[in-house]
Design brief:
heterodimer, A: mainly alpha, 4 helices, B: mainly alpha, two-stranded antiparallel sheet, two-stranded antiparallel ribbon, elongated, cytoplasm (chain B), cytoskeleton (chain B), microtubule minus-end binding (chain B), Gamma-tubulin complex component (chain B), GCP_C_sf (chain B)
Amino acid sequence: MDPEAARTARDSLDLAFHMSNILDTGLDRHTLSILIALCDMGLNPETLAALVKELRRDPSSSQPTPTIQSEIVDFTVMDLPMLS
Amino acid sequence: MEEEQKVLDLVKELVLRLLSPNQTDPNLSTPSISIDSQQALKYAMRILSSRMTPSISVDDSAMAESIKRHLVNQGKSSDALTFADLYSKFSSKSSSSGSIKNKWSVLYLLKVISEDRRREKRSDSRVSSGFFASTVSGGLPVLFDDDSDNCRVSRNQKTLGKGWNGGVLLVSKDVENIRDIAFREFANLLKEESEVSEGVLVRDVLYACQGIDGKLVKFDKNVDGYVLSDSIKVPRATGIMVRKLCELGWLFRKVKGYISDSMDRSPAEEVGTVGQAFCAALQDELSEYYKLLAVLEAQSMNPIPLVSETASSGNYLSLRRLSVWFAEPLVKMRLMAILVDCCMVLRGGAMAGAIHVHAQHGDPLVHEFMRRLLRRVCSPLFEMVRSWVLEGELDDIFAEFFVLGQPVKAESLWREGYRLHTGMLPSFISQSLALRILRTGKSINFLRFCCEDQGWADAATEAAAAVGTTTRRGGLGYGETDALESLVIEAAKRIDRHLMDVMFNRYKFKEHCLAIKRYLLLGQGDFVQYLMDIVRPELSEAANTISSFKIAGLLESAIRSSNAQYDDPDILDRLRVKMMPHGTGDRGWDVFSLDYDARVPLNTVFTESVMARYLRIFNFLWKLRRIEHALIGAWKMMKPNCITSHFFTKLESAVKLQFVSTLRRCQVLWNEMNHFVTNLQYYIMFEVLEVSWSNFLAEMEVAKDLDDLLAAHETYLLSILEKSLLGERSQTLCKTLFVLFDLILRFRSHADRLNEGIHEFQARTTESSLPSRDMTKSRFKSNDEPSGFGSWVSGGRKALTKRAEEFLRTMGQDLNTIANEYSSLLKGFIAQLPVQQHVDLKFLLFRLDYTEFYSRLHPNIYGH
């Protein structure tokens, strides 16, 4: 990446971080950058937000049942949303 | 696939970071991911695959706006400003490599995350009912889908719903939920309280508003209102609302009762056309009201149409909706009930006036309503006015019009035939307009009956055409009082002009007035003189011996021998002699009078009482003339003649002095009386009669209608009466005057006697000296003969002288008495003159006293 782009990216990230602080989202810079990257790739922001909420709410998640596991493993690669 | 891998990696990292936020070093990407994170990853994948497209549209600025608004709502307006600033910088970094392409999604992401955090921070037990779940969790209802029966879901259910048991809401001890608690308790209370559904109540209220008793709502005579039967238990609020709505039913009952009452009464008792019009108008309004009720009833069974099909609603009409619908009919019905109340006992024009008073209202709805109502109510009234003003017809069976007519004779048609009935005068017709209306119709009737004239019909059509309405029915209505007024004014103008034309041209009103002045008020001098000359000897007899035919014949001859013979025969025809009823001891002078016969239509002006007043004036003037005539007669005898001088020369000196003084006193007295009478006569003739006449003439010129003419004539007569001391205020003066007149007559007879005595004495002496003369010659004849200085019979001379002396002395004494009386009376008369209120009497005083003779004689009396 050229330095121009890098600077732009950095600035954008700074601005986004600032905005996120104002909105009191509790995200740190790195997480935010990941999220921004994911958004840019076209993921649904609602989904991402839900994901964030879920994962944040229950950090001490309970033990999953074994039945689910196998299911989840299967569709990991298949069902990713592909974007144009 | 590279993309996918990248995504996967990123997600993995994200998950790691989120799961262990307290780990600061991001380089902890160990290949051995814990079980937890594995689960989390899988779960994350699941979530990510669940929804492809966002639920709201892509719009950067809108999103930014929304975020700003949220911030402001939370009270962080400075933050909002900062955010705006940042956003502008953020969005300016566009379309260069390295910048964020999907800014909207970033913003949206941030927004949703912040909202979630906020909600979580506020309470952790907000989510209690399935209904709210979707909004709370940021729009993810799919999380709780039935088909997601995996552990995740069940785990979430457990975490979220603390005792979620489908339908019944649980209460948490959180302070901010008190409102919710209250609502729930209220809903429970309502369910317990109401036994009946609202739809039934609504239907009953609709029945009540038509005056019909419903199942639950009935009319209670004791309370005089519609009440819910007590057995039904309804919440108090509903009961109050039902009662309020039933007020409409009560009002409706009242109005309907009045209408049916009037309808029942109308053939038997006289409700009147205005009352009937009022009922008709009310019924029209009620039919509008029925239409509204019919529509409402049809709607009351339908449910409310809603957009979503799954939700259900109540009936279209709830009590509250009904109260909104009823607002306008309630106002109208209340108005109608008020009008019914105030018109219960009124009829005709009074009813219209009372309703009009209520129409003075600022609200346009009320105004419009009243205008419609009044238009119908007043149409019979206006019709009556129109027919009265244009045709003189008074078809008023129920006595509702404000013009009352009564059958009278033709001559009092104008004065008493019609009058205003102020009780029936509606308040929007002013008094002056009503008077004009009365006069116009009266004029038409007068023309029709008294003058036998048909020309007024043209005048009426002209008037109607001028105003723009027709002479047919229905031209005018309420609210067009101006039009009515202009119609009346035009009609009045034309009809009055026509009437004046008829009076002056066809019936020669002016000529008749002049004739009355000439004959009754003694304006025609030569005629009066002849009449006096001829009639005088007759009238000196006693009243009951005089025959009126003879006097009438004398009147004829007087007319023929004066200029009056050239007058219009029609006028002369009407002049008659009238002998008034006499008592005993009356002379002819007291009962004689002239009369003028004024026929229809002039006898409207010259009524009986008016003629009586003319008679009074005539009597006075006639008396005055008689006095004048008497004095002139005395003068004829007092002028120096031979007899007197012969007698004078023959007398002895002692008697001579007496003779001379007597004669002189006689002459002086005569002079005074003559002065008085002449001036009084002059005053009456010129200052009173002529002046009043010219005023009357001037007023006749400008008189516009018969009322004006009558008024002018009244003033004319009144001024004559006042100024000639015949009025009520001058009664004492009048008496003094008549006493003066009597005194003058006495003087006349004394003067006559004096002269007769002198002549007799003279005749005696000449007789004695000229015995050859014919003794039977009348005394008057002997005046003409110049008697020479015959020799006195010496023997009879002394006796003669003595007798003459005695005679002269008595005469002198009498004259003295008369003179004293006269001067005292005159003094009293003149003293009273300045006190009189009438200005013109000062002129009389001036004439009588222009040399100030009397005021100098008695200075203290006159106050000079």
